[in-house]
């Protein structure tokens, strides 16, 4: 495959580099906000579940229902449907600010389920032992559940981040920027397949780096592995 | 003092309701090591978990030093739990914390200052003999070491009571012995009242003062270990104490006599004397002798020949030598 003139121009004008930066920036920021919402939500889902440390049947059912609704709508549809929410929260339904809002709405329920499944990995006995010592519920979450599931939470965060990166590319079709937008508007719409492939390649590199760093951190923090 | 009054606990299972505990009444006195023995599924684990309300009984009373845990507010219950340590079969340590971090955990919860907590934790580590493992993580320890850490952690807040839920069941015999010796030492030197849940009669023999035998969700028998051991009344106690004897009950032949040693005569060479004096050939079908509280206890099941005169001679000999015996069916 030939590298066309347009690819060279995209590189020389710094458009590709900017695309990489914007993709990373959108992904990181969206992941951060998705965790600000998703982490407490996931904890709540776990704690209030039947057999959890403070079972609240109705709350668990409602939260689970909401999370499932958002999780079952395809992202591209959810994004369009949530444009008014972006307009309401950040004042615009265009550009990266609006895209981040949409990404967070889509990713937070996903993150919540990720967190819930990580917390489930903490053995029941460990939680019980702490309860037997007279640990209050909130302390149980902050000092037992979260620290004990830390490696799994980190692994989950990496998976979430990669998913959000994928979503951010889709945001390129409705007014976001980044590698997705470059691939769509320069590659697909102007029929330069090499631009598409360059964007794919760059995305793969970013994902690999995120995965590698995440795995290393998770491994370094896990004290269950014998040194 | 721990008092359980009319405790009943039912679990909902897909097949309907499962009664785990039925009208349990028992008292654990201060300073004693109290054993609760039963086969798996008997309800003993549920019972011990009711003592600190990890499991909430449906009805009845759980009194710790006269205070009913079931009517306590959340905060008061959490504080009471700090006076009841607990150890488990699976150790249940915090895997992401070091040994010292694990022992400090209950102190953090109780709001003890960091420096103070660390000093206390080090003191406990030396008590359980693991000073050099302070910085290790649980994954780097053996089962016995993990249980020692769990014991140190359970004792951190200076509890009056220690509950042991099958604490030695995951350990090999040698390690079991060392853990039991440690529990005994804790009872003797710190005066901690210990409740031991087990399915092994051996554990009861070795360290307990009193024992409750639980089967089919009910307490079948309760008493001093030496009494229950020498004259078990309930079927389940007999089964737990002399499993081997039950098996040989099928053997055909002459009379079978069960000789009981009550702590006075076990070490006399009774059987050989009997054989030499009466010239009766006997068959030892089963024997189990143990040392409890420094005294010898035990039972020997003898098979006598199918000869009435020989049997009469042997029984007469036993009577003159004041040896307690029962005729087995």
Order of helices and strands of chain B: EEEHEEHEHHHEHEHEEHHHEHEEHE
Strand numbers in spatial order across the main sheet of chain B: 6-7-8-3-9-10
Helical residue percent band of chain B: 25-40%
Average pLDDT rating of chain A: 91
Our count of domains of chain B comes out at 2
Radius of gyration of chain B: 23 Å
Explain what the structure shows:
The complex is a heterodimer of chains A (227) and B (329). Chain A is elongated and about 70 Å long. The longest helix of chain A has 33 residues. Chain A has 11 helices and no strands. In chain A, 79% of the residues lie in helices and 0% in strands. Chain A is an all-alpha fold and 227 residues long. Chain A starts with a helix and ends in a 6-residue tail after the last helix. Chain B is of the alpha/beta class and 329 residues long. Chain B folds into 2 domains: 238 residues, Rossmann fold (3-Layer(aba) Sandwich), CATH 3.40.50; 87 residues, Alpha-Beta Plaits (2-Layer Sandwich), CATH 3.30.70. Chain B has 12 helices and 14 strands. In chain B, the strands form 3 sheets. A 6-stranded mixed sheet of chain B has the order 6-7-8-3-9-10, sandwiched between helices. In chain B, strands 2-1-4-5 form a 4-stranded antiparallel sheet, with helices on one face. In chain B, a hairpin with a 2-residue loop joins strand 1 and strand 2. Chain B is elongated, with a radius of gyration of 23 Å. At the A-B interface, helix 7 and helix 8 of A face helix 2, strand 6, helix 3 and helix 5 of B.
């Amino acid at each position: 495959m030939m590298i066309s003139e347009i690819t060279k121009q995209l590189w020389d004008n710094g458009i590709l580099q900017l695309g990489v930066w914007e993709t990373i920036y959108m992904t990181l920021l969206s992941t951060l906000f998705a965790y600000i919402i998703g982490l407490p939500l996931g904890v709540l889902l776990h704690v209030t579940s039947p057999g959890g440390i403070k079972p609240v049947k109705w709350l668990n059912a409602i939260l689970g229902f909401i999370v499932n609704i958002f999780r079952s709508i395809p992202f591209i549809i959810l994004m369009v449907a949530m444009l008014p929410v972006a307009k309401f929260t950040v004042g615009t339904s265009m550009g990266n600010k609006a895209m981040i809002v949409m990404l967070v709405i889509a990713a937070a329920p996903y993150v919540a389920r990720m967190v819930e499944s990580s917390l489930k990995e903490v053995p029941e006995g460990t939680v019980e032992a702490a309860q037997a010592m007279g640990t209050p519920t909130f302390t149980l979450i902050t000092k037992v559940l979260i620290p004990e599931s830390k490696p799994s939470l980190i692994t989950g965060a990496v998976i979430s981040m990669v998913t959000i990166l994928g979503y951010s590319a889709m945001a390129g079709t409705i007014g976001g920027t980044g590698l997705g937008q470059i691939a769509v508007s320069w590659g697909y719409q102007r029929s330069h397949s090499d631009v598409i492939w360059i964007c794919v390649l760059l995305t793969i590199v970013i994902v690999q780096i995120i995965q590698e760093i995440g795995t290393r951190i998770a491994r370094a923090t896990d004290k269950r592995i014998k040194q | 003092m721990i008092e359980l009054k009319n405790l009943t606990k039912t679990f909902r299972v897909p097949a309907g309701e499962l009664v785990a505990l039925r009208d349990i009444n028992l008292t654990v006195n201060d300073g004693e090591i109290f054993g609760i023995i039963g086969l798996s599924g008997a309800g003993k684990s549920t019972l011990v978990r009711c003592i600190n309300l990890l499991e909430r009984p449906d009805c009845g009373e759980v009194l710790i030093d006269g205070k009913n845990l079931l009517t306590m507010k959340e905060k008061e219950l959490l504080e009471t739990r700090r006076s009841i340590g607990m150890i488990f079969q699976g150790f249940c340590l915090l895997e992401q914390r070091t040994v010292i971090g694990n022992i400090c955990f209950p102190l953090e919860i109780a709001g003890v200052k960091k420096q103070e907590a660390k000093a206390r934790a080090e003191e406990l580590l030396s008590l359980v003999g693991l000073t050099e493992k302070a910085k290790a993580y649980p994954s780097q320890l053996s089962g016995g070491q993990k249980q020692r850490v769990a014991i140190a952690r359970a004792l951190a807040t200076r509890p009056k009571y220690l509950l042991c839920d099958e604490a030695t069941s995951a350990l090999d015999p040698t390690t079991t012995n060392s853990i039991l010796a440690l529990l005994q030492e804790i009872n003797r030197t710190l005066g901690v009242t210990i409740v031991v849940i087990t399915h092994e009669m051996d554990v009861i023999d070795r360290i307990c003062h009193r024992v409750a035998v639980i089967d089919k969700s009910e307490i079948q028998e309760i008493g001093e270990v030496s009494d229950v051991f020498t004259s078990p009344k309930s079927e389940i106690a007999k089964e737990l104490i002399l499993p081997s004897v039950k098996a040989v009950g099928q053997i055909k032949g002459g009379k079978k006599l069960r000789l009981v040693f009550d702590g006075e005569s076990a070490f006399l060479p009774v059987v050989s004397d009997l054989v030499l004096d009466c010239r009766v050939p006997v068959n030892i079908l089963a024997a189990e002798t143990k040392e409890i509280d420094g005294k010898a206890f035990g039972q020997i099941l003898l098979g006598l020949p199918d000869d009435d005169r020989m049997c009469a001679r042997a029984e007469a000999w036993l009577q003159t030598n004041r040896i307690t015996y029962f005729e087995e069916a």
